[in-house]
């Protein structure tokens, strides 16, 4: 979970991309749910927000996602 200070408002282009992703059907269920939540809240997080969990967290997080092939 990220603190509210790590979130920024969606830009119109972000909203357009998110809505296109949701309607396209290419997103798996849990990713579609996350994007829908982002649209509903009107907020997004920059990847740098993961630094909140510590400097090493971001590198480990990305490496884990790549190794596990857990990405869009």
TrEMBL record:
This is Uncharacterized protein. It comes from the Eukaryota. PANTHER family: MEIOTIC RECOMBINATION PROTEIN SPO11. It comes from Stylosanthes scabra. InterPro entries: Spo11/TopoVI_A, Spo11/TopoVI_A_sf.
